[in-house]
Amino acid sequence: MTDDQRGRDRLLAWRAEGPSNYYEASPNLARVLAVRAGSDRLAAMEPTLARFGRVVAETVEPAVAEVERHRQFPALLPYDGVGRSVATVELHPAHQRSGHAVWSSGLLAGPVHGTDSFTQAGLFYLLSFAGEGGHACPAVCTAGLTRAITHHGSPALQDRYLPGLTSTDYAHALRGSQFLTEVQGGSDVGANTTVARLDPAEDGSWRITGEKWFCSVADADLFAVTARPEGAPAGTRGLGCFVVPRTLDGTTPNGFRIRRLKDKLGTRALASAEIEFEGAVAWPIGEVDHGFRIAVEELLNTSRWLNAVGSTGLMRRAFLEASSYATYREAFGVPIITFPIVREQLALMKVEEHAALASTMALTGLVDRIDAGAADDHERLVHRFLVNANKYVTSIAATAVVHQAIELLGGNGTIEDFTPLPRLYRDAIVYESWEGTHNVLCAQVARDCDRFDLLGSVNAWVHRELETTGDRAHGVGAQVLEALERVQGGFRAAVGAGAPGAAGFRRRLDEVVRIIQAACLAVEAATAPGDQAEKEAVAMLFVRRYLSPGHDPDTDPDWADLVALALGADGT
Ligand SMILES: Cc1cc2nc3c(=O)[nH]c(=O)nc-3n(C[C@H](O)[C@H](O)[C@H](O)COP(=O)(O)OP(=O)(O)OC[C@H]3O[C@@H](n4cnc5c(N)ncnc54)[C@H](O)[C@@H]3O)c2cc1C
């Protein structure tokens, strides 16, 4: 066999060996769910996750790749063949195919049908192996709108929309979207100028007029829209949160015009538009003067939580692509995974991926306890902290991990039809600005820390978490507490400096999130079922990397062993 034949055969063998079930290819998900949800709940959700792991690998990913390969992205159809205004978005049949697969998983079915927060997070994690894929954002928006209407909607609104929002039948389901951003400012939602007027002729309905600048899921059935009732105060305080049905008669756009679809860096299978509303019929979700609070607590907090779940899925997929490739690809006569530097790079990617899943599933546990009405005050405040801070850190980490995976595949990593990595990379960058940019999330946490003693609650929560760990993982728990003690003064000083969002606060926030992630990894190392040595090594590498100032791998006698243990015998 010639060398070139052998090289090509190795690539073919690598492809043939690719996972046919992402749930089975990611045993860490079950281990983390066992810790956070408990083994009984894991056992109950496992068949659903295992089924969907296969569906994403065999149906969703190929459909998403097909749309991307042929650049069959959403197209705007403003008018139909007889000249009626329809403001429709045309989608490729492959997109519809994957939509059926995603919705029938139960991802959006809600607790009444057995989809609690952990199941939803597990399913969304697996969906994200295909990147945004044109369905992740609609799923997140639908989940947020379901929460908003469940918690705040009138009985009439609930009866009208909840069955469709929680349907598992894609063809008849109602898909949600959320439009806050306007051209003059996305982060500064208080600058919204879209107006809401009470319609005196109709019972309880309002009319929305104004322009929204970034409208993802422009093909949605229900738009959640922030708008300012006439005469309401300026700023976020004056905003209402409304639901605008796409159409009132099944065809005609309900008082809106899609100006154009945006041509984006990533999330390209998703229709993101600029939309003008002119007297669209709308119903308020909850009290009109509580609109911004409802938008933040129900829509944005759901998006930020699931954005982080999505980032962890992207990271896992990238790691799997890179680690499997490294066992097949040969350079200088040996598989590249035999090079110590490659093994270290893979191990550190895995550490990052595990840390992101650890903190995100801890956050999911808080969402779950809040939903159940079981959360205490500390847990509510930790949720408030983590939902923003964790999104900020995990979205940056996702881009970094996908980037490293691309680099590990060399030139092939940059080729569109060789792996999904270029697509995942573009999606990861969008995830960073979606639902809050870095600085804006940091500024939000700073403001919250100024109003509430969030650090005190984080401190109490971390101590409580670590009570389970004992001396496991060579005292990782003790090192976490030591680091927490060390950074608290600087963190409080940065909050007290009165400059929320300043660079100093952002650096202190990075430290605290890394400490939380280390605590979560320590808990997993102590209590997760399965290979304890791997979990301990991951936790110890993480602590060395992020919690040990001045640590130098070259003078650390344990470094190489920890890298080997973290990577595991099969490098996955
Ligand atoms: C693909 C895509 C789809 C989107 N879909 C939607 C959607 O469906 N609905 C929707 O409502 N929005 C959507 N958005 C908009 C997104 O939420 C906004 O882009 C985001 O909130 C940031 O707003 P902006 O783009 O106006 O940036 P700006 O607010 O102008 O921010 C610009 C820069 O200034 C920084 N900055 C701003 N304020 C501060 C501060 N106080 N302190 C420090 N730094 C600050 C930011 O961090 C950022 O780096 C989408 C965005 C993208 C990219």
Detailed description of the structure:
There is one protein chain. The protein has 572 residues and is of the alpha+beta class. Helix content is 56%, strand content 12%. The chain is built from 17 helices and eleven strands. α5 packs across α8 and α9 packs across α15 (503-527). It binds flavin-adenine dinucleotide. The site of flavin-adenine dinucleotide (FAD) has 24 residues, from β3, β5, α11 and α12.
Strand order of the largest sheet: 4-5-9-7-6
Q: Give the distance, in angstroms, between the N- and C-terminal Cα atoms.
A: 30 Å
Structural class given helices, strands, pairing? alpha+beta
Range of helix content: 55-70%
Which features characterize this protein?
Butyryl-CoA Dehydrogenase, subunit A, domain 2; single chain; binds flavin-adenine dinucleotide; 17 helices; five-stranded mixed barrel; 572 residues; two-stranded antiparallel ribbon; alpha+beta
Helices and strands, with pairings:
Elements: H1 3-16, H2 27-36, H3 39-69, E1 75-79, E2 85-90, H4 93-103, H5 117-127, H6 136-152, H7 155-165, E3 176-179, E4 195-198, E5 206-216, E6 222-229, E7 240-245, E8 256-261, E9 272-284, H8 291-328, E10 330-331, E11 334-335, H9 340-371, H10 377-408, H11 421-433, H12 438-451, H13 454-466, H14 472-496, H15 503-527, H16 532-546, H17 559-567
Parallel strand pairs: 3-6, 4-6
Antiparallel strand pairs: 1-2, 4-5, 5-9, 6-7, 7-9, 8-9, 10-11
